[in-house]
Amino acid sequence: MRDRAAFLKPIAHRGLHSAAKGIVENTVPAFEAAIARGYGIECDVRPAACGTPMVFHDLTLERLIDGEGPLARHRAEALKTLRYKAGDAAMIDLADLLALVAGRQPLLIEIKSEWDKPDANFLKGIAATASGYSGPLGLMSFDPAVMTAMRELAPAIPRGIVSGQYVGDCWWRGKLGPERAYDLTHLLESGPAAPDFYAYDVNALPTPVTRFTREVLALPLFTWTVRTDEQRATAARWADAPIFEGYEP
Fold first, then answer.
1. Are 64 and 34 in contact (CB under 8 A)?
2. Which residue has the higher pLDDT, 38 or 118?
3. What does the pLDDT read at residue 1?
4. pLDDT digit string (tens) for 19-56?
5. 4-41+100-244 under CATH 3.40.50.2000, yes or no
6. Are 113 and 141 in contact, with CB atoms under 8 Å apart?
7. Are 42 and 143 in contact (CB under 8 A)?
8. Which residues, in sequence order, are CB contacts of 249 under 8 Å at separation 6+?
9. Which of 141, 132, 118 has the alpha carbon at shortest distance from 189?
């Protein structure tokens, strides 16, 4: 993994956000707070209607934004005029994020996927924007097909697979059958993407496959989302860096 040493530090999940301080996830104030405290940054990107990668987690706007409906129904220009319900931040796109961070801290950017065929314009936009960035940056997704596409579009940028235990009544229910859920849990679809790192659910660690990737393949293992003292101890023992939220390491 390029710039490996730069990434092996606590990574602020969606930036260093805090409801008590009025700092909203995936916004400029959250990213600036992480940079000021010396933490890496994890964030999410989704496509606007025009394919522009927007820095936003949810499929729809309602939870955080004074707007409604799927983010993908709105063009980037319109999304940037909307405001978050808390604070006075505006939504930014990937290019805005990279200009803001400017190499000061490492970035892990999760490419959101609903397990459908990847949006080609969206992925091309990510690749084009990220390829011009000189700071430490990794791209990752739960969907190995997304990272396989990124291997072709931006082969020089470190790639990661995000995973965990695909069991129970989870966010993926209705999208994946039991066989594919098993394969994703055990990282069996990783081959075509040739990942440079993994990020795995802290509540599932350790597993044989995460130990193999870290101890035998010597690939960096991040773990998400670390919030409690117990999870901090697990992350320290079984991963290389925590993706944390709700406290400061």
1. no
2. 38
3. 76
4. 999 999 999 999 999 999 999 999 999 999 999 999 99
5. no
6. yes
7. no
8. 10, 39, 232, 242
9. 141
